[in-house]
Design goal:
Length: about 100
């Protein structure tokens, strides 16, 4: 685990995000479900914003859209890992 967080939810979300290999993406809702907290997609975003060092660029919306704010940087990181980006969305073939 990257950091001591004090929250089972946070720790489990960190584990899931850290397990996403380069070249693959997961939706916020997929991360929440795999962590054991289906329906907590928004809270996954809070973890990404609060815990430094996570591969935040590998987490996208359920329809593959790049989250507003860091689209260009996120697209650059994903392309460097071999993920296809088109019209602000990732190609889901690289998803888990």
């Amino acid at each position: 685990m990257s950091e001591e967080t004090g929250s089972d939810f946070t720790e489990r979300v960190i584990e899931v995000i850290e397990s996403i290999p380069p070249g693959e993406v997961m939706a916020y809702s997929e991360v929440a479900a795999e962590a054991g907290f289906p329906g907590a997609a928004r809270a996954v975003g809070n973890v990404l914003g609060a815990v430094p060092g996570l591969p935040w660029w590998r987490v996208v919306t359920v329809d593959g859209r790049l989250v507003p704010g860091e689209e260009q940087l996120r697209a650059e990181f994903l392309r460097a890992e071999g993920v296809r980006i088109g019209k602000g969305r990732v190609t889901r073939s690289g998803s888990r």
